[in-house]
Design brief:
mainly alpha
Amino acid sequence: MFEMLQQNLCSSVFTRGSNRGDGLRGSPKWLLGAMTALVVARPLFPSEAVADQGDGLPVVMLWLALCVCFMLGAIGRRDVRIRFGLTDAAVLILIALHTIAAVVAATHLSARPAVNMLWEWIAMGAMFFLARQLITTQREARAVVAVMIALAVGLSSYGLYQYAYEMPHSRAEYAADPDSAMRAAGLWYPPDSPQCELFENRLQSTEPIATFALTNSLAGYLAPWLVVAVGIMVCSSGSLRSRKRLICLIPIAACLLLTSSRSGCIATAFGLALIWFFRRNRNKPPGWKLPVVAVVLVSVIIAAAGMFNRQIFREASKSLGYRVQYWQSTMQMIAEHPLTGCGPGNFQHAYTKFKLPEASEEVADPHNFLLEVWATAGTPAMLAMLAVLGCFFYVMYLQFSASIKSPRTACGGTVPEYTDAGYVGPIYFGALCGFLLSVPLGLLSAAPPGVAAVIIGLPLAACCVALLSGWVDSGWLPAWVPAVGAAALLMNLLAAGGIGFPAVAGSLWLLMALGLNLAESDVPRLSQPWHAVVGLAVAVALAAGCYASAYGPVLRCQGAMHRAWRDPADARQHLAEAAAADPLSDRPQRQLAAIAMELWRVDHDAEQFERFEAYNTVALQRAPNSSGGWLTAGDWYYEAFAETGRREYIEKAVAAYRRAVQLYPNSGLHRAKLALALRAAGDRHGFHTEARAALRLDRLTPHADKKLSEELRNRIDEVENEFPIPNPQSLIPLVRLARPLLGCYC
């Protein structure tokens, strides 16, 4: 055992792959270890805020740097073999179309989120490309799968720790001192406000989230790797050592059930049904039993989840209703922006324009991966996404069909005739580095996590790798196993969304790369030496472009804003540095406007108000499609009018409120504030029109946090009762009575 480990860890820097085709032959194996480290580190820190905050940009830079190193290793070599098939071409087209949509959005919409999402998708494409080239043998593929299953064990164990200790402790702290607990979370709401009630409801939730911001994101990561783990258990022998590997499934399955994620449970059941299908039909054509088994497994798994949380049944229809509302609004959005979409990272801003009055929240994605690509990047990108999936599953179909005709099969995959070489030591070492790397990467995110995930997850992940080491060394991984995992994840993304979250979507691209590498029909292509030079130039250009447009500006801006938070006395200076560092972000300018407005309240200094207007104008220019930004601007101008009585301020308030209503027409709050501003401006008819719309929307919404406050509702009712305007419908009887008299004069 020691000699084998020494051989893995102390092997030569360059090694040749199998006879089947090895991607870039002679590639340095430390690149494979580095790739594994990045894949492992990504889900270990909160990273859903990739658009606005740019939490994932450090990882993006590391992926692009790894591409540069890979292409440097290919320079001057005559035996360069690059895997590139139809699926790879479709992925390249998808990334290109998504990039075009992001560039278009950056020119006239919110530029910072568009640019951030542009680089996140390029990084996911880089990960897919590197996985295709660097995972060259069966043994290496099995090692990567074992590491990802171990990561799922670590994350699920941390989720169980949250469920058993961390969440009850947080609820106890809030019960003892609500104000301190809320401020510790960086929030504060009035005790009886709808926002406070929403915060308390979320605090009472018992669903674990691990290192993710949403419980559906955690379920989206666990479901495909649970399916893959079951697939390799099914393909393993029935020895005692094989049965011991079932221990790895327990924490993943338990945490998945505790999430009460209906989409995660359905995706898992779908994946398990596919495993049963492939296992039973590995030597014969497909049968009719697959849909029956799928329905049975879905019912059993959801029933098991319901034993942990009965609300999974009670809330099912409500959850489905919310998603239907999201999808209806998204289809209207697509109809308005069919070619390039509303822009990557700009979905939430665009969604408010089409949000239904009874919809629950201003979602950041439509909870459907295909609609998300369609709405944000346009119809061509959506068709490219379908082409990627079609090409991938077509390759998997050809491989499985060939395995049925082959006389020698192993659980649906042809037994290899070559020696299963490959060095897995760098993969294991890279996984260890990934756990440790997640700590400094997390410190750069908007919500830095603790080290509990590493302390709890790393030892249990190491135990999982030890249990799977026998399978890694002498087992077999058929191509359909990662394909089934990808299908399960896609099923989850159809109802939960998250194709733009690299911590979740990264598993999809990795599973697809593994499936293609394992499929015999996907043979590496021999490349010319000059291809490496072109590839290096592209990789260097991408790395430089990412640093100049995203990583450098965002990192400097975040650093300056953090200094402003720590040093309130010099906050304006630090915020000015942040605004200069990132010319695409509206956040520093918005905070500078708030500070200038606060200083103006003290002595009504005209210079301070001019500064406020300058900062506010730039902030609105950088986020012109943000209804919240325009609403805040209207509030500031309305306050200035109330203090000074100057007509120009109320006119600017009305203009800002009108723009906010245009961007969010079904918001009762936006309509109510516009109504009061119109009344102050002397527009009586406009006031009654907007006031009635606000009261109607207030009646339509069933959500407490979307209803008007009692004070605002009373103000509108009071003014409308004081100056009523007759309803046009009420004038119809008078017109009918006057018709004979009018006829006499005609």
